[in-house]
Amino acid sequence: MTRFRLKYVDRFADRHGCVRYYFRRSRGVRISLPGAPGSQEFADAYAAALTGTAPARARLRGDVGTFDRLAQEYFASAAYTDLAQTSRDLYRYVIESTLSAEDIGHRPVRGMTREHVERMMDRRTPGAANNLLQCFRRLVRFAMARASWGIKEDPTLGVKKRKIGEHHTWTEDQITQYEARWALGTMERLAFALLLYTGQRIGDVSRMRRADIAGNTIGLTQHKTGTKLAIAIHPELRKALDAMPTLNLILVTGHRGAYTPDTISRWMGESIEAAGLPKECVAHGLRKAAARRLAEAGCSEHEIMSVTGHKSLKEVERYTKEVAQRQLASAAILKLRVQKPNEDSQT
User: Fold this and answer.
1) Contact at 8 Å (CB) between 217 and 237?
2) pTM greater than 0.90
3) Quick one: 177 and 232 in the same domain?
4) DSSP 8-class letter at 184
5) Higher per-residue confidence, 140 vs 29
6) 259 φψ region: left (φ > 0), alpha (ψ -120 to 50), beta (else)
7) Sorting pLDDT into bands at 50, 70 and 90, what band is 114?
8) Terminus-to-terminus CA distance in the chain, angstroms?
9) How deeply is 49 buried, as exposed, middle or buried, from its count of CB atoms within 10 A (0-12, 13-18, 19+)?
10) 176/313 same-domain check
């Protein structure tokens, strides 16, 4: 087979056995060429180097072959930048936080095994474990598609998602118990009121601002779906808002900084435990309680969706069916109680 040698291109195998390509004129600056020869990525980089239009070399992150270097390449690639903003935010957060928490940024990607992936997932909640699996599967397969990384086996192959049970829907007694523990004027009560009376996810509540309030409505664009909502402010939520300082941020830390979704989740978990509520009561269950209350008030599926921002009827129908079943059962028993005995049945 005929082979063509590109002018000014050198190659070598690094200590991990990965083949690397560089562009270098005589006594000139050595320019790294990404991808493999024949790929569009490689061709574009070579053309830029040949014409002298190659950008200044970016500061490289980590050693060659490590997770830090792989993350840098992935975040700069079209495979990442072409994703929707919500997906980019999720992947970057999960990948970066995992590299930090597990202290594996400096470790070689080729050393990761299925056992390593399973262990990392075991240290997380089912939802967080599944996010980790999804993101690292994408990251590793990004490397496998590039010959320069020399990755032949996917350590996420065969790893199954963790089973996620449904979040418990708070009961009215549990709502009352929490409110009895955390009075108006506390950040714990304000966060609770925002979650319960807007029916939004923690991530959306964390980004709410006083500037989002116009008259008796609060506007937002859901981070996960991009859905724009304008929700009427419930009287109980108004009380909670009025009882707190009028800062631009609605939820703030003791240092007047913004809470992150993870911080709110952990912080709410502590306040729920302090209220003496069972472990089944989690912050997301307040979103379900909001939907339940709307269904009990006789709202249609579409009316509930206008508040919660759900995109499909499937999720909302679960609440309405449960409520409808209770209402129909009560009506049926009531009819049975008022029914007169059949005289013929007495003989």
Assistant:
1) no
2) no
3) yes
4) T
5) 140
6) beta
7) very high
8) 101
9) buried
10) yes
